[in-house]
């Protein structure tokens, strides 16, 4: 701004000096106000330019296409994504109807969809959606999912519409990738579940060898006896059909002990069949436990499953593990609806974890507890009106407070490297949850861990099917001396 004009040294005629000074003061005030107004105008212009640059950078950075139209559908503004898609510059698009960019033009089906979306957006605060095909730079159809919203001017009147959309090809590719990732995750989850089941099965190999050894040895011994009996009977039948006299036959009958052989054949065959059936039951149970579960549900005797799990763990990795199981004393049992193989896996995981925890204690602590008559693991099964509750209380080192919240997380384990996969409790938690129950863990003061399994009882249907998931069940352990009572941690 130029400096103010120089004032005459002598006041104009007719004005005294005071009036002249007042005029000068007024001119200074006006000039100062002009300076302030110009500074404010420059600041507002700078802010406006900054705001325009910010909006331009946003429009340029958008990967979605954007078109702003007036009330008649003529293009007023576009962003770089749309111009790149249709292969036209800003000047070539401004003022042209948006319908011209559609496949089929204004009179086609896509033009009708666009006009319908514009009409619906007038009465909707959130706008409307239209899927239309735009012509790209090569003239090919590109499906775009447009969201149309009304554009309001400074007076609150509708000035046009804003269309924001994304080419559906990108969405379809993203959805396809998401679906592939989901399928891969499902396959991995199934593989992890099966791997953990096979790992549990692997821990039983030693027990299986011992379990199968007795019936197979029994059958083998009986078969050798049958072979000797067959040779004796063949010799005797040879003499009989060869026309030997009565004296010779009587002597041969006594020498070959034919009467003893005939008397022993019945029990020999019965014992052989019993051993073969026992072997078949064991193999059948192992196959059912190792097979991929088909989610088949049936009534299951929970006490029988627990006893079978105790039997397998003792036969496998912990033959001297001191376990006491107390089933309900009312004689009614606890029948739940579920998969015998999956429930057996849960019980075996909990028992095996307890055995590993107790094994980590110093031998002096274990011997002292045994001298006090405390079992290494006490399993208690109780029932209420509608649910069964299993509590596994061990006398191991317990659970650290910082581990309680992560105990059922996949791959979390406190065992040394190579001793645990961190999947047993996580998979057990999922199995119990799928059966409509819950699995909880708590530190049992002064020492030990308490795991609680709650499962809904099945409706009474008589004798439960699938009571034995893998063959005959050995007798339960006798009731031990009293064990300290632990408060129930469940809410």
From TrEMBL:
EC number(s) from the headed UniProt entry: 2.7.13.3
Phylogenetic lineage: Bacteria, Pseudomonadati, Pseudomonadota, Betaproteobacteria, Burkholderiales
Region (Disordered): 462-491
Signal peptide: none
Catalytic activity: ATP + protein L-histidine = ADP + protein N-phospho-L-histidine
InterPro entries attached to this UniProt entry: HATPase_C_sf, HATPase_dom, His_kinase_dom, HisK_dim/P_dom, HisK_dim/P_sf, PAS, PAS-assoc_C, PAS-like_dom_sf
Matches recorded under PANTHER family: SENSOR HISTIDINE KINASE, TWO-COMPONENT SENSOR PPRA
Cross-referenced Gene3D superfamilies: 1.10.287.130, Histidine kinase-like ATPase, C-terminal domain, PAS domain
Broadest EC class assigned to this enzyme: transferase
Keywords: ATP-binding, Nucleotide-binding, Phosphoprotein
Source organism superkingdom: Bacteria
Protein name: histidine kinase
